């Protein structure tokens, strides 16, 4: 299968991404976290703060703060036991036991891993892996790598002014074992929700951050000692406490180097790690897609903007003017819940909808190397929604115009039944849901501008917006459930997206819910 056909099937023909006779070997499934063996470890404080309600003073953090920072991003936060409702996706699994985190993940498999390059006064300088299971750091390489990482980023970041750099990777087998090739789509989205949480937590700790989607992959992977046939870094995020830090400075064209040249500067390392699976199957399509996305050289990087969307003049609903939500991130992260059959129908007020939409899109703005120095670029992903039972707004399909804080009418009527018929699973009853959101983006998945790397960048940005929407929903006391089991063609038709050159990337039912019967325990001291 060629790569374009593969991307098409990932989006429009999900059944073609996995064998029809696929049987998931649950007994031989991998752990949801990577365990390195035989390396030096640094324990992190488990006495995490129970509130995160504002940015702290811009001072260089210590190891204790870094431990809290990492736990709120990706640590094990909750143990849950429940009995799943039988449906076409979950059968005969008995008691369902899960270790949850503050970010959602397809099947709670968490295919991503976190690595950090740290320069702290109370920790040896070096590159570490965040051991989620034990809440500790594992030392992979000792030393100062400012110059190396800076060149891997195309000399677009002053690493000497950063106290740390986070690397978000994907370990392919962690969800390939269940989803087969469809896992490639999930991996980008999961990385995006993780990055979204990271950026929000960084603000609460007073850290400035910027996301680099384009870098010399093999050089970065070599620094961490990982093989891109098993795992690869998707995003690099430096952290600074310098208030006047200049992000994405223009690089010196005379100092360019290739990934191959840069890799020669470090001795190769290979670390032993444990995944539990006795048999790891091959995933050639994921490897081929990843290899097609790798950068040997950093080409000139330009801003990727969204095409102008032509709105209908028939109806525009101006939403109430509301202030930005003020909330404790720790509390709403703990309270965030993904309802399955737990949605209950209740009327949504215009004010609730206004808070939800404004907070999700306003908090989504972030620094990245595609936008460069632009403060308020046009977003490459946007929010559409099918409304039902919203106070004072006709049922129908709308696009949210964040600049005007207005809903742009597209198609009238109740679309819940049609959307339900487009779902292969009955795990969510959309007749009980007042708000069904769709994140939309370029139908070509940015491949014209960014090659095959554009696909995973688009999925990451979609995931980041999803995380913002889920946190905003939690802040106003309702829940959301991200779904990839939906009919993208059907949604595109409802929203008349085809002529606009965009497509639906993910579906998120949002609304009030009742708590399902389950045993839940918080994993913090």
Automatic annotation (TrEMBL):
NCBIfam families: antibiot_sagB (TIGR03605). Residues 101-236, 347-507 form the Nitroreductase domain. InterPro entries: Bacteriocin_Proc_Enz, Nitroreductase, Nitroreductase-like, SagB-type_dehydrogenase. It comes from the Bacteria. This is SagB/ThcOx family dehydrogenase. It holds the Pfam family Nitroreductase.
């Amino acid at each position: 299968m060629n790569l374009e056909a593969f991307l098409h099937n990932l989006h429009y023909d999900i059944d073609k991404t996995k064998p029809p006779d696929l049987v998931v070997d649950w007994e031989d499934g991998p752990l949801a976290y990577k365990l390195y063996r035989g390396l030096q470890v640094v324990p992190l404080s488990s006495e995490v703060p129970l509130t995160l309600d504002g940015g702290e003073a811009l001072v260089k953090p210590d190891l204790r703060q870094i431990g809290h920072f990492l736990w709120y991003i990706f640590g094990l936060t909750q143990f849950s036991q429940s009995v799943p409702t039988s449906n076409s996706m979950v059968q005969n699994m008995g008691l369902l036991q899960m270790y949850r985190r503050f970010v959602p993940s397809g099947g709670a498999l968490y295919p991503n891993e976190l690595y950090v390059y740290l320069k702290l006064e109370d920790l040896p300088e070096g590159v570490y892996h965040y051991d989620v299971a034990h809440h500790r750091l594992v030392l992979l390489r000792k030393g100062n790598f400012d110059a190396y990482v800076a060149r891997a980023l195309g000399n677009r970041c002053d690493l000497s002014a950063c106290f740390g750099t986070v690397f978000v990777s994907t370990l392919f087998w962690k969800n390939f074992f269940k989803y087969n090739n469809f896992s490639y789509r999930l991996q980008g989205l999961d990385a995006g929700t993780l990055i979204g949480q990271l950026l929000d937590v960084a603000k609460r700790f007073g850290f400035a951050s910027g996301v680099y989607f384009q870098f010399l992959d093999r050089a970065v992977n070599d620094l961490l000692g990982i093989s891109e046939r098993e795992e690869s870094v998707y995003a690099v995020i430096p952290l600074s406490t310098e208030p006047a830090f200049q992000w994405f400075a223009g690089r010196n064209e005379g100092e360019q180097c290739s990934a191959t040249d840069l890799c020669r500067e470090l001795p190769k390392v290979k670390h032993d790690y444990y995944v539990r699976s006795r048999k790891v199957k091959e995933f050639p399509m994921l490897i081929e897609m990843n290899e097609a996305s790798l950068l040997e050289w950093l080409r000139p990087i330009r801003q990727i903007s969204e095409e102008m969307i032509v709105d209908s003049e028939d109806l525009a609903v101006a939403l109430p003017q509301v202030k930005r939500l003020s909330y404790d991130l720790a509390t709403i992260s703990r309270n965030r819940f993904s309802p399955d059959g737990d949605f209950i129908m209740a009327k949504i007020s215009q004010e609730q909808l206004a808070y939800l939409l404004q907070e999700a899109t306003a908090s989504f703005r972030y620094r990245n190397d595609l936008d460069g120095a632009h403060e308020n670029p046009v977003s490459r992903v946007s929010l559409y929604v099918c409304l039902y039972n919203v106070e004072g707004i006709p049922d129908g399909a709308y696009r949210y115009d964040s600049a005007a804080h207005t809903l742009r009418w597209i198609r009238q009527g109740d679309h819940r039944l049609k959307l339900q018929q487009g779902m292969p699973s009955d795990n969510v009853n959309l007749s009980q849901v007042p708000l069904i959101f769709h994140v939309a983006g370029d139908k070509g998945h940015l491949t014209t501008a960014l090659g095959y790397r554009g696909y995973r960048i688009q999925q990451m940005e979609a995931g980041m917006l999803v995380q913002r929407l889920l946190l905003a929903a939690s802040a106003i006391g309702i829940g959301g459930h991200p779904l990839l089991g939906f009919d993208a063609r059907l949604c595109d038709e409802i929203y008349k997206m085809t002529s606009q050159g965009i497509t639906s990337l993910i579906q998120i039912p949002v609304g009030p819910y009742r708590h399902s019967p389950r045993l839940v325990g918080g994993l913090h001291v």
